[in-house]
Amino acid sequence: MIDIDAGNLVGRYVALWGEPDAGVRRTTIEELWAEGGGHVLQPPQEIRETAAGLGFDHTTLEVHGYDAIEARVAHAYRTFVAPGEYTFRSAGDVVRLREMVKFTWEMVPVGGGDPVGGGLEVLVLGEDGRIVTDYQFPGP
């Protein structure tokens, strides 16, 4: 596996979610993810409970490929960042173990303040150092 700087990778990853330029977002996605790579999201607990109550046996949300990842990132940008209320940041706890990079992230008010959301991220990297699978576990 190619030697990468995990802190730099996480910095670029987190910055992507707050990038206002759609062209830069797309280029960054293609640089960070392997072709056909995926983003797998475990929805918040209340959504999982609602789905289970409706008879669904799983609630994992998953997208694959550059177009789908781009749509996912763009939606998060439009929802949380574009209105000017929040931004994302790494919690600074990046750990790399072989082909995996683990870190937590926070959603914070623009201008500072306590986090209003966040989660755990586990990135599985391919031989070229790009993301094959991105597992996201949002927290309270």
Distance from first to last alpha carbon: 34 Å
Individual helix count: 4
CATH architecture: Roll
Structural class: alpha+beta
Low-confidence stretches: none
Q: What Rg is obtained from the alpha carbons, in whole angstroms? A: 15 Å
Approximately how much helix is present in the residues?
A: 25-40%
How many structurally independent domains?
A: 1
User: What's the helix-strand series?
Assistant: HHEHEHEEEEE
Q: What proportion of the residues form beta strands (DSSP E)?
A: 35-45%
Q: Which CATH first-tier class would you pick? A: Alpha Beta
The profile of the biggest β sheet is:
7 strands, mixed
The number of distinct β-strands equals 7
Task: Return the CATH topology.
Answer: Nuclear Transport Factor 2, Chain: A
Rough shape? globular
Summed over residues and divided by their number, the pLDDT gives a mean of 94
